[in-house]
Amino acid sequence: MNPASPLDNVRIVLSHTSHPGNIGATARAMKTMGLSRLYLVNPKSFPDSEADARASNARDILESACVCTSLEEAMGDTFLAAALTARSRDLSHPTRNARQAAGELIRYAHHHPVALLFGRESAGLTSAEISHCQLTVQIPANSAYSSLNLAAAVQIMAYELRMVLEEGVVADEPDPQLPEPASLQEIEGLHHHLEQVMVQSGFLDPTQPKRLMRRMRRLFARTRLEKEEVNILRGLLTAVNPHKPT
Amino acid sequence: MNPASPLDNVRIVLSHTSHPGNIGATARAMKTMGLSRLYLVNPKSFPDSEADARASNARDILESACVCTSLEEAMGDTFLAAALTARSRDLSHPTRNARQAAGELIRYAHHHPVALLFGRESAGLTSAEISHCQLTVQIPANSAYSSLNLAAAVQIMAYELRMVLEEGVVADEPDPQLPEPASLQEIEGLHHHLEQVMVQSGFLDPTQPKRLMRRMRRLFARTRLEKEEVNILRGLLTAVNPHKPT
Lengths: 246, 246
Prior knowledge:
2 copies of one chain form a homodimer. Chain A has helices at 20-32, 49-55, 59-63, 71-75, 98-109, 127-130, 150-167, 184-200, 210-223, 227-240, and strands at residues 10-15, 37-41, 66-68, 80-84, 95-97, 114-118, 135-138. Chain A is an alpha/beta fold. Chain A is globular and about 60 Å long.
């Protein structure tokens, strides 16, 4: 891959990883496929000698890893985030398999940073974590035993991302008509604004906000908001806010 | 997958594995994708508590693993064997990428046992080991660092095998016209017979047999011999043998 490879725009984000060995094995899995941007959200132990050992000759990935305290910090400036899940959920996001998701991520990664989010070894991602992403990804697996090791799941996704480029299915040229997508940070700003207006208008009970806000997140995740649309919606929210300064 | 899945006909053969943890991780990688037949050729340590730990809930795969002392024992009765290699070699076999190889293996696996052969963690497969296979497989990787962990390589191949079935690209119905392929055992028998006749006829120096026999193996690997063809060739060898009983 040349220095301007879309793979340089793909982040692997590991949330609350328990076993440092899995962080090291993830670094190795990434480097073998040409990925390099590792983000660790509240890892249990890092740096750690076990991570170094399992990374083998991919310690440079560990050394340049970003350790974060929140998903917003790790993914706020990305433009497409996909959450790995082992099973479908209530109120689920649009779901892709590993191959489809890789194609979609690379399409964005030609121009914008994107993220693949992996959860805890034991329990995966929380619904709150998933709600920060625009789509969920499932790796096809044996229904009787679908529990892939964390680094093994990273390996498959990294492989599929590389294969998109190897097979050259996705055009390297951007569609010049494509409107600029909103960043996750801009979308988060919209959600906060929306929640505020819903509460202030009496539409949303602030003691029971979760389900309704998750539905709204799901809706906007599906639409892939553009930057301009976020601006329009926020303008509307400002206009309709009953507490607006007159 | 139903009980008659082609995945039941696919063997994962690990040759001379050094780290028992990799055997356990391989078992887990296999089971998540619906594979179950594990063959271990001279593993350094097996059974081993480290293998059990890394297998997680795939210990049943370890318990039913076949421990062998030779490749012939592990693969002799298979009909297509593919060797995983990180790089091309001199006198190389036909090479497929992971996806292509998976398609080819599944096509055979609808009716016959097939094998995927993985070498030592440190040095991969020897040329002698590769010469028992009909094709080599490369997993597309970063040319600057292509050293996948053993179990990670198994995970990708197992995933691609499953994906062939998930995507339904390969017809489940056999081609009724397809002639019956020769088993590796039958092909080995041919090679031994051929070498014997070459030596007895003075064509081959028995103190320097390696390169010539490897060329012959490569040739026949490419052709995918049928059962009937092996019989014809062996009949010919018997007929031309200068030492034949008169």
